[in-house]
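Hello forum,

I keep getting stuck at the same step: I have a sequence, I want structure tokens, and every attempt I make locally crashes halfway through. Rather than fight my setup again tonight, could one of you with a working pipeline run this one for me? It's a single chain of 203 residues.
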Amino acid sequence: MRKMPVLVAAGVAMALAGCAPATAGPGAPEPSVEVVATASPAPSIRIYQESHFKGSGTMSKTTDRLHAIVARNPTVFSGDWFSPSDPGIFVVGVALPHDPAAVELETLRKSLDPSSKTTRTVPAKYSLAKLLQVQHEIMEQYMPPAGDVRGLGPDPINEAVLVDILQTDKDPVLTGNATVRALAAKYGSLVEFQATTGVSAVD
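Reply #2:
Ran it on my machine without issues. Output:
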């Protein structure tokens, strides 16, 4: 958002300092207020790193039961996944830790995996419901024919909506793409981007 700092006229500044401003005589010009526009800062643009999704593991009776709670409560959890850094560890992102569903999940998790050898919970800034809301807004405004978004879906590990941007040899790098810059300015860290030459898709 463009900042519009206002430089106050000298009379007002004096009043704030405890001094009464001088009375302007007849025909004196009205005091002026100078408005100075500053350049908008460049938006911070997150570029998706594919390695973040290389977690691996096998679903079990324990993880199935935890996943069922997560799936029923998209406003409480950001999602679940197998850790990219600790293979085999099933992770749940918790956006509302004091919600009854989160308490239920943590109680069940500790009873099934007391030493946390195979499961883990981590705090999440955004719920899956929030990510899906942003995804829907982007899909409505920037998917073809309105824009050059060619795919998008929630990325719970990075707590963002992953947006695929159509990029050809003639297009600028992602950080120079107008749609990327507009989305980054609007949603900030809620969105991340990767280039694609493929057809449209929504996960």
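The mean pLDDT is 81. If your local run keeps crashing, start a new thread with the error log.
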